[in-house]
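Tip: read the tokens left to right.
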């Protein structure tokens, strides 16, 4: 009888311990699950960049060291070269073998599945882009290295400033404030016929962008507005409206042009008629008694 009671007590004690263990397990199980999930996530986060770096190294062009995007040329030895460098070489720069007519489809497909870092990441850019967008970004990246735009436009200056794109505006406003003008919905300008060739450039800040208007005049008025961060291969997002009125405001001439890229050649714009060109003799009735032509200029978004 005593033995039976003792066995029953042991069973009760064991049941109690089991219940306590089960309760503890239920309490701590979620914690261990969270720890496990965190470790798995951390492992994935650390593994993916390593894979990405390996893929990016395979996509580096051996000639220019930039990333290759479709189409990617392929040589008989299995090496690759980017589409920009391909026309500049007659044979593979790695093994000197000839190129095939076909491209590396596998590598092209791989390049379309990853995101590329900006080439200016070493200057601070942290953005990544798919293959069909990263080149467009680099053309306007705020971290791209730049020299002084005043010097670039052949002003009478020896400015040797260099920095990154996002610092250009501050440089212009501090070091070249006389070459900058305020823009508020419209910009006014007085042109006067000159017997000698005259050229002038000024910087304007609108839509959080940097613009420059440039004009020259003697017998003709040549006028253009340039967008500082606009790549020459892309369509401009802005246009400018050139407005001339007569003395009493009853007549006007309005001409609209696309804003051109800062990097485009002035001669090329003049020859291809991508800038505004007016002859002074045709504007006689708009010239005031002082021999001045009063001009209003507006910068507009193309989609406005």
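Filled-in amino acids:
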């Amino acid at each position: 009888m005593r033995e039976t009671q003792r066995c029953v007590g042991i069973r009760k004690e064991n049941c109690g311990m089991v219940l306590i263990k089960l309760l503890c397990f239920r309490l701590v199980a979620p914690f261990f699950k969270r720890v496990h999930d965190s470790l798995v996530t951390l492992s994935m986060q650390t593994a993916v960049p390593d894979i990405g770096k390996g893929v990016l190294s395979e996509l580096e062009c051996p000639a220019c060291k930039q990333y290759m995007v479709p189409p990617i040329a392929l040589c008989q030895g299995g090496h690759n070269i980017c589409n920009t460098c391909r026309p500049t070489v007659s044979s593979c720069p790695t093994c000197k073998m000839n190129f095939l007519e076909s491209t590396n489809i596998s590598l092209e497909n791989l390049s379309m599945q990853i995101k590329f870092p900006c080439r200016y990441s070493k200057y601070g850019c942290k953005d990544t882009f798919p293959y069909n967008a990263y080149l467009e970004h680099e053309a306007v990246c705020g971290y791209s290295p730049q020299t002084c735009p005043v010097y670039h436009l052949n002003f009478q200056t020896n400015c040797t400033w260099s920095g990154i794109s996002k610092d250009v505006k501050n440089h212009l406003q501090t070091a070249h404030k006389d070459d900058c003008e305020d823009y508020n919905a419209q910009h006014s300008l007085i042109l006067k016929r000159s017997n000698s060739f005259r050229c002038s450039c000024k910087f304007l800040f609108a839509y959080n962008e940097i613009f420059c208007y440039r004009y020259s005049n003697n017998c003709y008025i040549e006028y253009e507005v340039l967008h500082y961060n606009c790549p020459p291969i892309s369509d401009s997002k802005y246009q400018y409206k050139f407005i001339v009125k007569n003395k009493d405001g009853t007549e006007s001439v309005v001409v609209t042009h696309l804003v051109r890229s800062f990097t485009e050649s002035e001669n090329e714009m003049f020859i291809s008629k991508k800038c505004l060109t007016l002859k002074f003799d045709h504007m006689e009735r708009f010239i005031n008694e002082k021999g001045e032509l009063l001009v209003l200029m507006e910068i507009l978004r193309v989609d406005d």
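The chain is about 30% helix and 30% strand. The CA atoms of residues 223 and 252 lie 17 Å apart.
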